[in-house]
Amino acid sequence: MKASIFALSLSAGALGAPTLDARQQVSTGTGPYPARWVTAPDFPNHTIYIPQNVDAVNGTMPVVAWGNGACSANGLGQGNFLAEIASWGFIVIASGGPNQGGSTTAQWMKDSIDYATRTTSGPFAKANKESIGVAGWSCGGVEAYEQYQDSRVKTIGIFNSGQMDEGGTRRVVPNIRNKSVFFFLGGPSDIAYNNGMRDYRALPSGIPSWNGNLPVGHGATYGDANGGRFGKAAQLYFRWVLKGDQTAASWFTGNGAQQEGWTVERKDLDKLVFPPQGDTPSKC
């Protein structure tokens, strides 16, 4: 029954989608699997980004749970950026339905993880439930931090974000274990710059971490085609830490990011542990 319900939702997502503005319509991603967004009737408060042809994806698909800027409940708010990630063979679940109003909480991100790990129909039949990341922009990054005790989460992506004050940093950041943490900040003009830098420096020894600053401010490039330079950085990040893709690694371990204008710091990247990728699912 669940499989048929999900199939109907995929059709609805493709044919009955809410009207999008021009920026939201542009991108299907630069990866080998052009992406789209869909919704699931049994999970209406979230928007799911997947390859258009899931069957064409080689192997399993890691899962990324995303928190929107301003903790907005509009799951299309960073659509270009999230489609870019999905186009490289990921399932991305944004908190909030398409064009939904209101605000989210960190619980919505946990709900995304729970849904991904229990659902076996539709695209989730190919989900790698051992390879889950959380990330978010601004307020959404704070929501991602709140998953720090979840053993299912392998990496935390902090995009133009940081704990709101030193108390938040002391409560969360030194207590992160068994996860990598990557920061993508907008330089000194980013209102979250000082927060993010403070958090990066507060990470305990042994946590694989990377900190990149691109001088574009707090708004970054999420609305650009394919998410712009932040979209490229994000897909490379998830390809490396959740798929073990070594072709993406040098952007972080070498000077690839610097060549594209990022100022970089990094710690303990040699301690990264890559999630198991599982067997390539058979088509039936």
What does this structure look like?
A hairpin with a 2-residue loop joins strand 1 (35-40) and strand 2. The radius of gyration is 17 Å and the shape is globular. Residues 1-24 and 280-284 have low confidence and may be disordered. It has helices at residues 2-15, 22-25, 79-86, 106-118, 139-145, 166-172, 193-202, 228-243, 246-253, 256-259; strands at residues 35-40, 43-51, 61-67, 91-95, 127-137, 153-159, 180-185, 209-213, 263-267. Helix content is 32%, strand content 21%. It is built from ten helices and nine strands. The chain is an alpha/beta fold. It has a nine-stranded mixed beta sheet with strand order 1-2-4-3-5-6-7-8-9, with helices on both faces. The protein has one domain (2-14, 28-271): Rossmann fold. The longest helix is centred in the last third of the chain and has 16 residues, at 228-243. The two termini are 18 Å apart.
Summed up:
With 284 residues, this protein is an alpha/beta fold. The protein has helices at residues 2-15, 22-25, 79-86, 106-118, 139-145, 166-172, 193-202, 228-243, 246-253, 256-259; strands at 35-40, 43-51, 61-67, 91-95, 127-137, 153-159, 180-185, 209-213, 263-267.
Sequence of strands across the biggest β-sheet: 1-2-4-3-5-6-7-8-9
Gyration radius from CA atoms, angstroms: 17 Å
Name the CATH superfamily assignment: Alpha/Beta hydrolase fold, catalytic domain
Total beta-strand segments: 9
